[in-house]
Design a protein that fits this description.
Helix content is 61%, strand content 12%. By secondary structure, the protein is an alpha+beta fold. The strands form three sheets. Strands 4, 5, 6, 7, 8 and 9 form a six-stranded antiparallel β-sheet that branches. Strands 3-12-11-10 form a four-stranded antiparallel β-sheet. The chain has a two-stranded antiparallel ribbon with strand order 1-2. A hairpin with a 2-residue loop joins strand 6 and strand 7. Helix 6 crosses helix 8, helix 10 packs antiparallel against helix 11 and helix 11 packs antiparallel against helix 12.
Length: 649
Amino acid sequence: MLAELGYLSLLLATGLALLQGLLPWLGLRLASRPLLGCAKPLALSNAILLGAALLLLASCFGLDDFTLVYVAQHANSALPTGFKLAAVWGGHEGSMLFFVFALGLWGALVALCSKRVDPLIRTRVLAIMGLIVGLFGLYTLIFSSPFDRQFPGPLEGRDLNPMLQDIGLIIHPPLLYLGYVGFAVNFAFAMAALHSGRLDGAVAHWSRPWALGSWVFLTAGIVLGSWWAYYELGWGGWWFWDPVENASLLPWLLGTALLHALVVCEKRGAYGHAVLLLSIFTFALSLLGTFVVRSGVLTSVHAFAVDPNRGLTLLLLLGLLLISALTLFALRADIRAPYARFGFWSKEGLLGAAILLLSVTCACVLLGTFYPMVFQSLHLGSLSVGAPYFNAVFVPLALCLMGLMTQIPRLRWQRLARVSPLGTLLPPLLGLLGGGLLSLGYREQGSMGWSGILANMASLWLIASLLLNFSFKTRDLSACRLGSLLAHLGVAVCALGIAQVSHHSQEGGTVLSAERPYRLGAYEFRYEGSEPLLGPNYTAERITLSVYKEGKEVARLAPERRHYSVRTMNMNEPGIAWGLFGDLYVVLGEKMGPEAYAMRLHHKPLVRWIWLGGLLMMAGGALRLLGRKPLLASRPARIPQSLRQQEAP
């Protein structure tokens, strides 16, 4: 009964979404206030019905209703309750339902939080959001319904993939989906601007908070996913240039470019066409990531499904939305933003260069990710594009971006601000000196390449520039300025961690036993013993290791090898000693004899700084968002004086 109610909720939500996407357009043509006013209640109803469908599916998991095909494939009565609820989005069908729910949720937020937006723009935005929800609702109903029954149902379910039985599954996919789907709002604003013939600073002002909120969620999802891969998959890395990892990085890069283009459009009225194109392609890349995860066209440990037919349908949906948007852009792109004069050495000019670099970086990652698939589909053979290509292309572009970022304290509209000689010379000197000393500090772990040395110098130069500027202007500091400071500091801290872990990590393999300790750099690993464990739905063997440095014990590690009987899968849980300046990381291998085990041992310097930088970026974005005026304010927005002449009559 619960499953049938869930299916009915999804069906009603899809029908109402299609009405939401059609009736307001009819109201615009007929100048009918009732039809124009129906968009908001329909958007709220959609969100409620989609939330009900998701909760009803979660109830089926909690009740172990194995007559549902989806529940039987992704749950088991012995599965812990938290993982049962997370299994709702642990497979293709449930994740698509959550995807549609996230679309409906963002649409409802737009309906509730857009009182300051021009009513005609808001109506168009809600209508476009309704069409998107309706299309993906139809796809879920026809091709990916999680409410399909089977009779008789099995006595036990197949269980959730052991790789997904982690707290990361509870948090990571929702954050990532909310980031992906949030850019649909900016896509809708771009389409509304094109249809209305109006693109000015006010529209950019209304659109910018949604881009910022989506960017924060997407950053959180990527950071958490990277951390999850690091401590769960057991390869000792944190980013593998996997196709699904790249699929989340692509909209993040363009979303970052979109944020900066919106700033210039809002404040100076420039880069309007860039805002439109970035809004279109950022959302398109979000949908492309959804296609990659579910199509099976690219091999990945993160993929949900390997069904090319359903993937092809998603690709057709993506093509329909992209072609429609670009056609509208081609027909209506004669929208002219106000003319703004500025030189390259100004805030507008350097932000434009950063937007271009981010777009080129995104294009290079996109090419490396999908070129093997295109090459194979043309029957030209098979090839693989791995980390060497991405590092060779991505690192120089990232260093150029960081070079631009070092000029942030000098950015002013139309020109660069004058900075004192101390403020001009001290940051690069600190960067050069600190980068050189940091590289020398790890000399016993191998020499650092030119890219690592430049990354150290650029990171420390950027940190010094930001902190010096902060110390000089503490009186003028607002939540928005503090958010910008933290976000850019996060980039520098993250780059510093990446440089150290990429160039100075140490790794070794050995057969470890009580009689045979192993030395890795300054650390000595000693075998202490093993013990069996009985988990809720697995059995395991845990090994205890002690780590000594200069004769003193500094850490204890406990790697495990687990066996999941239902799926008949073995999983390794690495043992990790977390540290601010480096991690000790051990992966357990096969048993090689009585009290002897094969192991891979790693030392990862400053690896935690990668996620610390990500947290700073998230905090900075959240502060920028909270520093803006409340979205729920009932009075109209106060548009800057420079933009008032741009308002449509």
